[in-house]
Amino acid sequence: YPLVHAANAGLLNATIDDARLCKPGTLDTTKIKGNILICIRRDKTSSIAQSYEAGNAGAVGVFVVNDDKSGNTLLAEPYSIPGANVDPYEDADIDEREWWGKGGSDKNNSRKLAAYMTVARTHLGIKPAPIMAGFSSRGPSAVQPLILKPDVTAPGVNILAAYSLAASPSNLPSDRRRIPFNMQQGTSMSGPHVAGIAGLLKTLHPDWSPAAIKSAIMTTATTLDNNNLPIRDAFDQIASPFDYGSGHIQPNHAMDPGLVYDMRTRDYLNFICAHDHSQTFLRYFNSISYNCPESYNIENLNYPSITVANRGMNPINVTRTVTNVGTPTSTYVVRANITEGFKVLVEPSSLSFKTIGEKKTFRVILQAMSWPSNGFPVFGNLSWTDGNHTVTSPIVVL
How many CB atoms are closer than 10 A to CB 119? Predict the structure, then answer.
């Protein structure tokens, strides 16, 4: 079918900006009928709503071109007519910048382009994967930057999920379709993946605390894709811990993490104390009065990731405690690295365990050597390994 860009198919009383977004009441049926329409996606526009406008205007199909914030994240969405998301950098022929110039000048109206659509097929083993979605939330945490967020990343793009028959797949009032399954995106999909893993780990290890389960998921995550290369984002840039936290979840590895960073109620109460909360607030989490320590360093919270504040040329010291949940008798050695500007020292550099449940404490010293050429944040990682287990924590210097 011939392709027509919505920017060139607007009604006379519609602005080019409104037409290219395929807003209601902006499209000229005489220019669109029998063609595949190209619409532009923006933050506040719904691709599905755009497909309805395209269908109402007589289009036989619709391509929705991602905006710059979406990058190459292509979503499977319940369009009302045959349609697809398109990466604007994948094929410049359908990029709006190739169809009309800045300021709305129609420079390519005479170009004749065509496209075809085939029946949908399932493709397995796509590479690279995973890729951090353009819409995924990024760190650092605005509430407490010294706790790395996100913790991990999990599948959250184009997930086939059970769906209520009480609502349409698009949630548009005009959509009368009802389906028991729908393609869904976002934390609503990645969250259940992690929650399911947590439930399975609790069944396998009923004596583990929530912190131990969280640690197992985080320290066994991967930062490599299925090409064995660093995970990239939707803009074809190498992702960082602010994108994926500790990495992409690996459930089978989480079953046997070797070591965990465990925490008890006292650790959480001390964390709350460090934020100067009152006893009234603390009682929400502890039924009796709790005496806050005179001083507490949030950087020493026994979290599976390590985030510290830049102190210039002064060394940064943090402590962590690991609990052996792997082989009763084992010795772990440390590997630590960080990008330019810092040197990492871990004391001790090896940890020997004789029993399950045994705890060992170590200290991480970050010494600034020079000002990083790219400034801050600076990223690194720390791994303990006994040959069978690898327990990895990201390091971030803000």
Answer: 5
Paired tokens of 43:
């933050």
Give the distance, in angstroms, between the CA of residue 155 and the centroid of all CA atoms in the same chain. 9
Q: How far is residue 271's CA from residue 296's CA, in Å, rounded to a whole number?
A: 8
Give the model confidence (pLDDT) of 350-391 as tens digits. 999 999 999 999 999 999 999 888 889 999 999 999 999 999
CA distance 393 to 104: 50
Answer whether 18's CB lies under 8 Å from 45's CB.
Answer: no
Q: Please report which helix (H) or strand (E) contains residue 396, including its range.
A: strand 390-397
Among 3.40.30.10, 1.10.600.10, 3.40.50.2000, 3.50.30.30, what is the CATH number of 3-98? Answer: 3.50.30.30
Beta bridge partners of 306: 395
Q: What is the dihedral of CA 200, 204, 207, 210, to 10 degrees?
A: -20
For 160-218, write each residue's pLDDT tens digit.
Answer: 999 999 999 988 888 899 999 999 999 999 999 999 999 999 999 999 999 999 999 99
Angle of CA points 141, 143, 149, to nearest 5°: 25
Instruction: Quote the CA–CA distance of 94 and 294 in Å, as a whole number.
Output: 63
The Cα 47–Cα 45 span in angstroms is 6
Residue 260: CB atoms within 10 A of its CB come to: 26
- What values do phi and psi take at 310, rounded to 5? -60, 130
User: Which residues, including other chains, have CB under 8 Å from residue 239's CB and lie 6 or more apart?
Assistant: 132, 223, 230, 231, 232, 233
- DSSP secondary structure code for residue 110 in this structure: T
What's the CA gap between 39 and 4, in Å, rounded? 9
**pTM given for the model:** 0.89
pLDDT in tens, 240-251: 999 999 999 999
Q: How confident is the model at residue 316 (pLDDT cuts 50, 70, 90)?
A: very high
